Structures are given as C-alpha cells and as structure tokens.
Amino acid sequence: xxxxxxxxxxxxxxxxxxxxxxxxxxxxxxxxxxxxxxxxxxxxxxxxxxxxxxxxxxxxxxxxxxxxxxxxxxxxxxxxxxxxxxxxxxxxxxxxxxxxxxxxxxxxxxxxxxxxxxxxxxxxxxxxxxxxxxxxxxxxxxxxxxxxxxxxxxxxxxxxxxxxxxxxxxxxxxxxxxxxxxxxxxxxxxxxxxxxxxxxxxxxxxxxxxxxxxxxxxxxxxxxxxxxxxxxxxxxxxxxxxxxxxxxxxxxxxxxxxxxxxxxxxxxxxxxxxxxxxxxxxxxxxxxxxxxxxxxxxxxxxxxxxxxxxxxxxxxxxxxxxxxxxxxxxxxxxxxxxxxxxxxxxxxxxxxxxxxxxxxxxxxxxxxxxxxxxxxxxxxxxx
Amino acid sequence: xxxxxxxxxxxxxxxxxxxxxxxxxxxxxxxxxxxxxxxxxxxxxxxxxxxxxxxxxxxxxxxxxxxxxxxxxxxxxxxxxxxxxxxxxxxxxxxxxxxxxxxxxxxxxxxxxxxxxxxxxxxxxxxxxxxxxxxxxxxxxxxxxxxxxxxxxxxxxxxxxxxxxxxxxxxxxxxxxxxxxxxxxxxxxxxxxxxxxxxxxxxxxxxxxxxxxxxxxxxxxxxxxxxxxxxxxxxxxxxxxxxxxxxxxxxxxxxxxxxxxxxxxxxxxxxxxxxxxxxxxxxxxxxxxxxxxxxxxxxxxxxxxxxxxxxxxxxxxxxxxxxxxxxxxxxxxxxxxxxxxxxxxxxxxxxxxxxxxxxxxxxxxxxxxxxxxxxxxxxxxxx
Amino acid sequence: xxxxxxxxxxxxxxxxxxxxxxxxxxxxxxxxxxxxxxxxxxxxxxxxxxxxxxxxxxxxxxxxxxxxxxxxxxxxxxxxxxxxxxxxxxxxxxxxxxxxxxxxxxxxxxxxxxxxxxxxxxxxxxxxxxxxxxxxxxxxxxxxxxxxxxxxxxxxxxxxxxxxxxxxxxxxxxxxxxxxxxxxxxxxxxxxxxxxxxxxxxxxxxxxxxxxxxxxxxxxxxxxxxxxxxxxxxxxxxxxxxxxxxxxxxxxxxxxxxxxxxxxxxxxxxxxxxxxxxxxxxxxxxxxxxxxxxxxxxxxxxxxxxxxxxxxxxxxxxxxxxxxxxxxxxxxxxxxxxxxxxxxxxxxxxxxxxxxxxxxxxxxxxxxxxxxxxxxxxxxxxx
Lengths: 383, 383, 383
Description:
By secondary structure, chain A is α/β, with parallel strands linked by helices.
C-alpha cells in the first residue's frame, strides 16, 4: 500500500510543510491546496525531482535512523533530534514547536514535515492505515471441533475446539489450537492468536486482541485450611468478563472470580506474562506492562499505568490515574492520583555489599542517632 | 442443586441457630431436632414465611455483600462484620464467638447461622458440595492421537496427543490440545485443562488439577561453559514427580530434574505463572502464590506459604512451616519455622526519590555516625 | 548405551587415573595404554574384579551422592569434596588439583578418576554422549495442517499448523499442537516442543531448542495515547530473528519488533518464563535465568549473565560480560563489564518491620546526621 502525504493529511489532519531551498521554511500547505504547494528539494532522499510535497508517496513508517525514501518517520522525543540531520525519511511527523526550533537551526531540512500536537498518536494512525490487521477469512477449518454457534463471517483456525453453548461473533478470528469452553461469548471483531484457552462462561468484548498462550478463566487461588495443614479447594464459580478494545499479551493469565466476576474494563491494555488474580477489577483504559502480578480482589482504577514487574497485593484499591513505576510492590490502597515508587537502585556488586548490608541494621542506626542527639543536647545544656 | 440447612449440618457438622424475634438469640438446633427449632422470622430475606430454619434451602454460596435469599454466606474475618447488618443471605457460617458478639449488638439478625470454629473451611465444603467438578464423560475424542494406554473411564479431549507407553488412569480428564509425552503416568481422578504439556516420563498423582498452559518436565537450565563463553547443554534426564491432590495454576512451569527428579509433594498448591527449577523438592501441603520463582535444587519444607512474586534462590533449604511474604528474595537457607520478609515499602515518587537515593550511601552514613560518636566521646571526656 | 573409560578419554581427552591399593596413587594411564594400566580394586563399587580401569564401563552420569556402580560422577565444586569418601561412582571427573589434594588425604579412593581442568564441561560432554537428543523421525503426522514447505527429514507432530510460505529445514522436529505462522523460517536441526507458537515472518536459526508454551513474535506493547486516555495501537511490523544454537525455556515470550527486528544472538540461553520486549537485542552467548523481564529496545551485550527475576528497563544498553544478580532492577545503561546488584536482604518478619520502616525516613535520617555534625562542630569550635 502507498499513500500520498496529501491523502494522509486529508484524512488525519495536521499541517503539511516543506523545508526546502527555495521555499519559505515552514510554509503551510493546506489540505487540497496543492497548487500553492512549495516544491520539495529533497537532496538526500532521492526525491529531488520536483515532486510536489503533497504528491510524495509513503509506503512504510520507520524510525528516523533507519528510514529511507518512501518512509514516514516521527519525532516525538526531543532527545532524538540529532537524528533529524541524518534521516533519509521522505517526511517526518513532529510538533509545530519542534519544527520551528529545528527550522532555526537549519537552512533546509531534507524532508517534508507533518505538524501536529501529538506526533506519536498521528504516527500510530498512519501506521495502522499502512499496516491494517490481516483480513479475516470467513470459515471454519475442517479440523476444528465446533459445538457452539459461530457467525458466518468468523474465521476458526485448525484444531480449534469450541464448546457447547459458546457464541462466536461476526468477524471474529480464532487462531489454531485455541480451546473455547462452554457458553463462552466472544463479541464481534475480536481476534485470538493460536494456543489461547478460554474457560467456560467467560465473556470477551468487541475488537479485543488476545495473544498466544493467554489463559482466561482459570481457577483463582482459593483454599481453606484444615487443622492438619491440608488445603480444601474453594470452587471458583465466577467468570472473567472482558470489555471492548482490550488487548492481552502473550501468556498472560486471568483467573475467574471465586463468586463474583473478574472484570477487565474497556480499552485496558495488558502486556505479556501478567497474572490477574480472582475478583480483580481493572478500570477503563488502564495499561499494565509485562510481568506484573495483581493479587485477588484488587481494584484498579481507570487510566492507571502499572510499570513492568510491579506487584499489586490483594484486597486493595487504586484510584483512577495512578502510576506505579517498574518493580514497585503496592501493599496498601492508593486513594490519590499520582506516581508511586518503591524499587531499589542497583550498584556495582561491591558497593551493593557495602551499602545494602546496612539495611539489616537501620533500626540500630536510628537508635545511635537518637542517642547522639541526647548526648549532644546534654552537653549543649551544660556548656 | 439445593440443600436444606438440615442436610448441611447433618453431613458437615456445626450448630444451626436462628436469630429471630420470638426465639432466644443463639438457641441451638440439634441435627434432626427440627421439632424443637425456632421459627425464623427473616424480614429482609423474603423467607419470613415461618419456614423452619432446618428447612431453609440453599442454592448458592455468596459473599455477605451480594448474597440474596437462598444464599449461604460466611464471616471469617472480623473486618467484614459491618456487612452482617445489611446482608440478605439466608444463612451465614460463623464462629460461635462471632455469633455471640454479634448477638449482643443486635436484638435480631436477619439470617440463620451455622456455628463452627472454622467458618471458611466449612464454607469451602458447602461450596464444593453445591459446585462439584464437572462430570468426567468417558471416551476418547475422535481427533485425539492416542498411542499409550487410557482407562475406559477417562475423558480425552479433542486434538490431544498421548505418547507411547503413557498410562492414563481411571476418571482422568484431559482437556483439548494437551500433549502427553512418552511413558507419562497420570493417576486416577486427575484433571488437565486444555493446552497442557507433559514431557516424557513425568508422573502426576491422583486427583490433581492442572490448569491451562502448564508445562511439566521441560529441561532445567543447566549448561557448562567453554573457555570461549559458549554454553554446552547438560542433558536433563530426571523427571518431574507430582504427588496426589496437587493443584497447579495456569502457565506454571516445572522443570524436570537434571539427574535426580523434581518432586512436588502431596497436597501442594501452586498458583499461576510459577517457575520451579530442576531438582527442586516441595514438601506436603505447601502453598505458593502467583509469579514465584524457585531456582534449581532448592528444597522447600512441608506446610510452607510462599507469597506472590517471592523468589527462592537455588541450592538452599527452607524448613517446614516457613512463611515468606510477598516480593521477598530468599538468598539463604531458613532453618526455623516463622515468617520472613524482605520487600521494600512504596512511597509517592517524590518521597521515594528523596529517601531511596540514600540507599547508595548507607555505608557513608554509618561512617558519619561512627565519626560523630568518636568526636562526641572525645568531647565528653574533655568536659 | 555404555562407554568404556578408554573410549571416553580417547574422544574427549583428559587423564585417566586409578586410585587403588596396589597402584601408585595418581598413576597416569595414557589413552590406548591399557597394558600398563593399574588394576582397579574398587571395593565399594562392586567392580573389585580386576577389570582394567580403561575397560570400566559407564552407563549413566550421576551426582556423587546417588551414583552407583557403572556411573560417572564429577567434582567441580570443592564444597562437595566430603561426598567423595562415600560415593559409589565407578569414576569421577575432577581437576588435577582436586585429585592431588584428595590423594594426600586418602590412602585409596574407591573410584577411577578422569582429570581435566574443566570437570563440569567434561561431564556435560559425556552426558550428551550418553543421553543424546531423541532421534528425529522424518514425516508429517496425518493430523497436521501444512501449507508451507517442510524438508523430507523433518518431523512434524500431531495437530501442528504450518502457514503459507513457511520453510521448515532439514532434521527439524516440531512437537504436537505447535502453530507456525506464515513465512516463518526454521533452520536445520532445530527442535520445538509441543504447544509453541511462532507468529508470521519470524526466523529461528539452526539447532535451536524451543520449549513448550513458548511464544515467538507476539506484538510488542506499543500504544499512543489519545487526549481522552484511550490507547491507539502501534502496529508491530518487525520480526523476531533468532540465531543458531539458542535454547528458549518453557512459556518464555519474545515480542516482535515494532519497526525493526527483535534479535536474539547465536548461542543465547533463555530460561523459563522470560519476557523479552520489542526491539530488544541480545548478544552472543548471553544467558538469562528464569522470570526475567527485558523491556522494549534494551540492548544486552554478549556473554552477559542475568540472574533470575532481574528486570532490565527499556531503551538502555548493557556492555558485554555484564553480570546482573538475582532480583536486580537495572534502570540505566551499564557501560563496563562487571557484576551489578540491587536486591534487598530478607529478615525475620519482626526484624524487617523494625528495620525496613526506616526506608521511608532515610532522608530525615541524613538530615539529622548533618544537623548533628553542625552542632558538634559548633561545640568543638567553642571548646
């Protein structure tokens, strides 16, 4: 697929500008205003052929460093500005502020620019346009074992099992070797990669993306203890209910509720190898990075960001818009939006030995300071 | 399924009491002693119809907060006592002590109660009775590829593979897409969810529950190093041997022994996404929460509890009845029962920056305190 | 299979020595020099039958403690030296230094010894010889769904799917229920255990071992954020490219690159349940233990060792030969080879409460020390 810069700004907005010898730096090109467009002189990109900026064709998105002619790149982080000098991209998405500060440094930039306040978001939209999800090819593979109901437009892969009472919506794609339990509901447009397991009665919303190896609806970790120390299983009879537009990374596991349901809100994004315990509720548009564990009955608000390998203990509540940084263990409820941290710094092994050994003696250290204060005060009084 | 309170106490014990206007608070109802039973007046539960307490029928278990008429709930943690005032449960399991302290606060409670010293354990038993595991439907799915021996009463799901020499016991259920290696033994009554892999020669005991995505018997991480830095694989020729009544959570992995076996004792409960290294031994009735890693050749005693995301280093020993709290890294053997911790607290990001930066300088801080002590002592001597 | 000690040293080198009554301790036996060999008198091993040392036959490798007659064991760690007195092994691999120090302590050792500077590496080679990987049985199982190209010598298991354009090399073995995406390349001699998922376009080198439940090529965790807080997916269009002789542990996940590729170098060894983010590069012969997370765009050098449950943040670089110890969070680039640590010690729960609570007040503690220094200095000046 190839798109002209004109098509891109026509659909996605932004200002298209050329940075050329012969054209005013930052000269604005209105959508549909091709006649007035400055001619791009793109010395290093191989398009110094007088093509109007609006007609430049984009076939791929690429990072500044590796972009080549025909590529659209983006500048969203000022620390990559040095790469702008060398990029071979045909066009770069950036903020107006970045463009004007660059324009003052260079007499000419070897690319066209699309100016927008949110370059990374704009880039995401172009990238989705150029690399759409693969088509869903309607049909049920001959090797699949389907008892439930499947929409005509759905694609069911090889060696899939779909249990009794399950409902698979329109345009759903289910990859090879998935196992879909009894009475599971998968709503329109959702896609499951291969080797996903969905236990009975769970519900997956619309346009979700579930990656390979994900397990949805396994039993929560609930046991009562006998006097002997033996464990008696608590039946886990709740469900997992997943909203719309949720993405779940590879090998992530989400336990069904013990009695109530485990609930994953609309727009939630879960990275790989996350463990979500039973009865957890996660609010809309919260994003959780890889290797995080969320223990049973934790309630996480909307629009939270949980960093990688953070651990959220059970039976606590996180407010909306809480940010937990990488490797932090959250042991009590957080009632206020904001950023929270608890990880330890790393050192060379020798420095670590010298410094971290004192962690075993912080209380004695505090005692020594208190004693010093008292002795000093006594002396000061005397003096 | 529905059970009368009388049936429940007849099988599981406990004292059935009514808390009603018109009946003495805490009046004891013997099993089979229905004639003498106080009439329950359950205003808020919709059963204020004069039904004898023993005849009240229970169809579900439910938490105090969401329970409705026909539900049996439980009070095991005093912090949920406030919910007792509002619950719509038909009956609540609680300790005699909790009942009597509640009775003094309220002239009447809107539910019947079953009194037992271990309410949560009692609740687990009722829940198992009301929600038994699904029936095993004997038979081998036509799509399964079975070379080993399978008991007539076992259920083998779609697209399962069972290797040469494997023995699948009576009443075993194996979910879709499981792969069972050569000479694997799975004893009577065990259940494997879909997408489980059991490598060759491993042994699974009786009445185990293995959740989806579990891998049993993968190679341990054993390599010798050449002078060049290249790694030479140590063949992993031990097995994994799993006892009876073991439950293993989704996507947990257990490596086979290098030479000896990896051994998981009877009654062990493993949550999701746990990694057990080669040659590990875990004692009877130990429970391990999600995201824990146990490195190679660690030996964990009986009746231990390991909190989520804890990490147990290799080649060490934990005594029986050791409790390791969430997020703790165990770096040496623990020879005495008790609770052990090592996780860092979390703070607002600003406080964390201010406080945790000192971790790099604890040794200098200790030096400063020592210097202060010496200077102060010198002054005290002089004075 | 059984090997004589003579066959072993003939192929793998080392010095074969007997430690017997009647033979000089440490007497060297040259390869092929059987005539001159001391007669072994192996009282405890059941081979005290006058067999020449070179003819002793080895059928298994085993640890010193559990070895029996016919077993070859090894001593690579001096702390296991006490076990030498009791071992029933027919022969033990050890360093010349260990042998001579043992020889001085004992008038006779009840085993033959192979002397080599790297006993563990030698042991690995013998173990590989005695326990080779199972034969690859050429052929495609009738239940497999194969669209791509498969070499005649490859073995494709039951219920495998292989997508359009995929190329499966010579002597490749693919376990049951694996799903191989479109255009995937798996080079000669690689082996995939059951339930592995390889997404489209990924490349696996020669002689790799991929364990069960591994996911290769899932989407990286890349989203741009709208003003509302909603996330817009960044298409992940790079690949995963894996070198030769790579081993990947059970349920490990490796995300495909966003635009560039994720690259795993030759000889890299990854343990179980590791998460590798998009665009990560890992250098040759680096080994990573279980439960590690490597966030997106991290670059890890060659011959690094990353301890279990360590976490490497994104967009940073680790030099060659960096060692990160267990449980360490790496938050910035490491430019120099060496060992780095950052984990917290563990304590009894009571000691932990007393000591770790001060972590919230380290800054105040530093302030108190500074104030003490100033007050003391003021007093010292006065005095």
